[in-house]
């Protein structure tokens, strides 16, 4: 290495590592380049590499160092995103605006919109989101994300017609009802494996932090068929992401991998949208389900996040001529509440501000703190489309929970059985996934912890004093879990000690990156998938 050009050589090696995705290696070489000779652009690139490694704290420091040497638009943009990911939204707004003042760019407009949204400046967020949509060449997922945020912003400033119009545009992009061949044009011969061997493989995966949910070949008259359509109530802090995310990513990937020009009588309609969060989104979705499906729907998986789910259940029932399974993953109410308080604490710089937020939640009808499990399960006080009178008329009674499935988040076996039932009935590929997607502990490492544990426990105790778990604890979850368990234990997947499983397997990594491989290859060396 030429000593006179050592900084450039180290920088070039760092850039090569960055482009290959080896961010740790890039960081090492960028540091060496800076140690040899300070340069604003080396700091800029080091900051982005740290950002990619989710080291937001140091990334912010290095972006600021780069900016002190040269006010570059993309350094302000990077600083804005590092601040956003640290939940420092007001500071992020300032950084994004400085980036846009130097150069208008889609990333800063997007970041500005999201930061304004998180600080409840919805009208200004709408302006930023609309400017984002002017740019061509955006990734389809980014476009869909912007339309969702835009629709939510209109909703929050009570612009109903604008919100409905935006949701319609969103669903025209997202392809709500997709025609999918779950075998992507390949032979439909299921793989045979001894049931004992399959069970052994499954437990080996669990020991390594992964779950394998086989999709079995089942008889046409099987009772498992009723699991083709699931309406999932995603209660916050009940590990729902790990259950629902693989099913959504799988559906998208299968649709993307459909052979061009391929037609087959066995292609079916599948409905697996992004999580449903808005009352106006529900309204548009209901119409599309009820009036835009002339053919029968093969499979449905809809996840409700804080919206009234009864209207959706009714619309799905009309479309499939049967009631969907309503599934709830639940948790000890106090444990759930403590997890929610700990999550909210990242957004507050002082315990006083967190307590003020908690006090406000005593009257918020859609609070994620105040008896949220009761509200979700009984569909009470959510942002329903119906009037309050109509809501009271169709109030669900406790004995109406008989047709719902309840599983405790610690019951991994039952979750896997239900996932297998859905996959089998829908003829979708097997699913192999990391067990704790969006894990709160790993996610917390990326955020700036501003309150200590004693303060968090103090806030939690205030929630208890305000009665935030009284209705949740009145629900007999043990009874509900046992009742569901007795039903799913009757599932019959095997045929005389031999299991026939789907010829394709969907792999979802810790980073939520999905791929599909032949099951035969997967079974030949299954350990390579969790080791890598």
Strand order of the largest sheet: 1-5-6-4-7-8
Low-confidence segments, given as residue ranges, are 385-398, 440-446
User: Largest sheet, described in full?
Assistant: 6 strands, mixed
Q: What structural class is derived from the secondary structure elements? A: alpha/beta
Name the overall outline. globular
Instruction: Report the radius of gyration as a whole number of Å.
Output: 25 Å
Distance between the termini: 34 Å
Number of helices: 25
Question: Helix proportion of residues, in percent?
Answer: 40-55%
Average pLDDT works out at 87
| Portion in strands | 5-15%
Using DSSP, what is the number of strands?
A: 12
Output the keywords.
alpha/beta, 12 strands, 532 residues, six-stranded mixed beta sheet, four-stranded mixed beta sheet, single chain
Q: Could you walk me through the main structural features you see in this protein, from its secondary elements to its overall organization?
A:
The chain is α/β, with parallel strands linked by helices and 532 residues long. It is globular. A hairpin with a 5-residue loop joins strand 11 and strand 12 (514-518). 54% of the residues lie in helices and 11% in strands. Residues 385-398 and 440-446 have low confidence and may be disordered. Helix 6 packs antiparallel against helix 7 (106-118). The chain is built from 25 helices and 12 strands. The longest helix is centred in the N-terminal third of the chain and has 17 residues, at 140-156.
């Amino acid at each position: 290495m030429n000593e006179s050009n050592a900084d450039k050589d180290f920088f070039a090696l760092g850039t090569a590592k960055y482009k290959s995705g080896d961010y740790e290696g890039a960081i090492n070489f960028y540091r060496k380049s800076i140690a040899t000779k300070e340069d604003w652009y080396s700091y800029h690139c080091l900051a982005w590499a740290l950002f990619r490694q989710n080291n937001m704290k140091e990334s912010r420091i290095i972006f600021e160092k780069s900016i002190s040497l040269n006010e570059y638009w993309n350094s302000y943009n990077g600083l804005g995103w590092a601040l956003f990911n640290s939940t420092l939204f007001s500071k992020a707004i300032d950084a994004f605006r400085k980036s846009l003042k130097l150069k208008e760019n889609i990333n800063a407009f997007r970041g500005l919109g999201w930061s304004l949204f998180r600080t409840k400046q919805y009208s200004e967020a709408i302006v930023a989101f609309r400017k984002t949509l002017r740019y061509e060449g955006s990734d389809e997922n980014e476009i869909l994300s912007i339309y969702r945020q835009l629709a939510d912003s209109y909703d929050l400033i009570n612009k109903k017609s604008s919100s409905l119009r935006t949701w319609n545009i969103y669903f025209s992009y997202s392809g709500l009802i997709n025609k999918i061949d779950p075998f992507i044009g390949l032979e439909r011969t299921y793989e045979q494996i001894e049931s004992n061997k399959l069970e052994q493989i499954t437990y080996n995966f669990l020991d390594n932090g992964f779950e394998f949910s086989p999709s079995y070949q089942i008889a046409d008259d099987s009772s498992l068929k009723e699991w083709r359509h699931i309406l999932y109530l995603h209660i916050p802090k009940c590990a729902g992401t790990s259950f629902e995310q693989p099913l959504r990513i799988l559906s998208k990937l299968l649709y993307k991998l459909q052979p061009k020009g391929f037609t087959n009588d066995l292609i079916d309609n599948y409905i697996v949208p992004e999580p449903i969060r808005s009352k106006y989104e529900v309204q548009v979705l209901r119409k599309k389900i009820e009036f835009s499906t002339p053919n029968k729907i093969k499979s449905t998986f809809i996840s409700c996040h804080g919206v009234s789910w009864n209207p959706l259940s009714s619309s799905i029932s009309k479309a499939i001529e049967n009631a969907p399974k309503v599934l709830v993953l639940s948790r000890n109410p106090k444990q759930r509440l403590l997890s929610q308080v700990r999550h909210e604490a990242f957004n507050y710089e002082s315990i006083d501000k967190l307590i003020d937020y908690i006090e406000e939640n005593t009257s918020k009808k859609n609070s994620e703190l105040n008896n949220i499990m009761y509200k979700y399960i009984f569909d009470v006080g959510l942002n329903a489309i119906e009037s309050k009178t109509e809501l009271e008329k169709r109030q669900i009674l406790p004995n109406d929970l008989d047709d719902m499935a309840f599983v405790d988040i610690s019951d991994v076996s039952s979750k896997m059985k239900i996932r297998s039932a859905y996959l089998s009935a829908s003829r979708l590929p097997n699913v192999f996934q990391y067990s704790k997607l969006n894990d709160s502990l790993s996610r917390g490492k990326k955020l700036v912890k501003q309150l200590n544990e004693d303060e968090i426990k103090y806030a939690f105790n205030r929630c208890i004093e305000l009665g935030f778990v009284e209705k949740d604890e009145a629900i007999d979850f043990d009874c509900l879990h046992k009742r569901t368990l007795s039903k799913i234990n009757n599932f019959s997947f095997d045929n005389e000690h031999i299991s026939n499983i789907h010829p394709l397997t969907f792999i979802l990594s810790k980073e939520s990156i999905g791929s599909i491989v032949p099951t035969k290859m997967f079974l030949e060396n299954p350990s390579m998938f969790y080791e890598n």
